[in-house]
Specification:
Layout (H helix, E strand, L loop, with lengths): L8 H7 L1 H14 L6 H14 L3 E5 L2 H11 L7 E5 L5 H8 L3 E5 L10 H7 L4 E5 L10 H11 L2 E5 L7 E3 L5 E3 L6 E5 L13 E5 L2 H10 L4 E3 L2 E2 L10 H10 L3 H19 L5 E2 L15 E5 L4 H10 L29 H9 E4 L7 H20 L1
Parallel strand pairs: 2-3, 2-4, 4-5, 5-8
Antiparallel strand pairs: 1-9, 6-7, 8-9, 10-11, 12-13, 13-14
Helix pairs in contact: 2-9, 3-9, 4-5, 4-8, 10-13
The chain binds pyridoxal-5'-phosphate.
The site of pyridoxal-5'-phosphate (PLP) has 14 residues, from helix 4.
Amino acid sequence: MDEIRMVDLVSQYEQIKTAVDESVLRVMAGGQFIKGPEVEAFAAELAAYLNVRHVIPVASGTDALQAALMALGLQPGDEVITADFSFAAAVEVIHLLRLTPVLVDVDYDTFTIDPKAVERAITPRTKAVIPVHLFGQSADMEALMAIAEEHELYVVEDTAQAIGAACISSDGRREKAGAIGHVGTTSFFPSKNLGGFGDGGALFTRDDELATRIRAIANHGMYRRYYHDEIGINSRLDSIQAAVLREKLPHLDRYNEARDRAARHYDKALRGHLHIRIPKRDAVRTTHVFHQYTLKIRTADRNRLKAHLESRGIPSMIYYPVPLHAQKAYRRARYRSADLSVSDRLAKEVISLPMHTELSPAQLQYITAAVLGFFNAARDA
Ligand SMILES: *Cc1c(COP(=O)(O)O)cnc(C)c1O
C-alpha cells in the first residue's frame, strides 16, 4: 500500500501530466505571463461552469475576499458578520479594511454559520455577511439571503472549500455555491478542490456594475490604464496558473465524486459508533464536495486518536484548533458576551481524516480500521 497522505497532489498530477505540461509550455513560449488569453479563457470557462455572468481571477482567495469588501464600498466601522469557526481569511481582511468584525456561532451538525445567530447579531451598522461554505457544504443560503434582503445586507460567499457544490433551494432549484450572494469568492490554493500549482483565487458575480468595480480594484483602481479613480490593490492570477486550472476544471466534478466515494467509505465504516460522529450531509439544502472529512470525537480523547493514527502512518489534521474569537490577533472584549459555545466545542472535538481524489480502497480500509481499533483498544483496556 502506498504512503497515506492528507492531500495527494502528485498522483493527481500524474494522471493529467501530458496535458498540463503542454499547456504550461505553451504559456512559456507565448511570453504572456500576466493576464492574456489563458486567464481570460479560464475566467469564461469557470463562469460557464458556475452559471454566473462574471468571474474575476485574482492572486488568492484572501485577496478575493478583500476585493469583494472594497468593491461593496464598506466604510470603517461598518459591521460585517462572519463565522467564528473557520479559517481566518475573512476576519483578517475585515480588520485590514478597518471594518468591524462580528463573529457568530455555527451549526454543530454542518459547521456552517447559524442563520439565527446572524439575525441576532444584526445592528443598524451591519452591512454585510460572509458565510463560509466550510469543509465542502454550502451554508443555509436560503435563510441567509432572506435575512439579508430584510435587513439590506450584502452577502459575500466564501466558497474556497466548496467549489462545485450545488446549493438546493426549497423549490428544488439548484445553483452552484458561490453564485447566490452578491459576490462569491474562491481560492485555487493547491490543496483546494480546484487547486493550481501555486496561489490563485477568483470572485464571481452576476452584477455587471459590481464586476466592473471589482476588476478595477484588483488592478490598482484603474478603469482606464494609468488613471487611478480609486485606491485598489494589485492582485492577478498569473497565466501559468490559469493554464493549469483550465486543464483541471473539466475534471472538477469527477474529482468531487472521488472525494464523495472516499467519504462514503468513511461513512459506512464509522456510522453509528458510540464515540464517533460522522459529518452530517445536509442533503436537502446542498451537495457535499468534501474538502475535508471531519469527525467529531465526543467522549474519548481526540488528541490521543490523532497520536494513535500517526503511530500507524496515518496523517490527520485539526481544522480548526482555536476559534477565531480566541485567536491572539482577533481577541476582542466584545466577544466575551457573545454565545460562541458551539464553535468552542467544535475546536475541541474535530479531527479531519485524509481526503483527496486518489485514496485507494485499501488505504481507506486501513484508515477506518485504525480509527475503530483505537476505540476498541480503549474499551478493552
Ligand atoms: C483557503 C481558504 C481561504 C484563503 O485562500 P488563499 O488562496 O489561501 O488566500 C479563505 N477562506 C477559506 C475558508 C479557505 O479555506
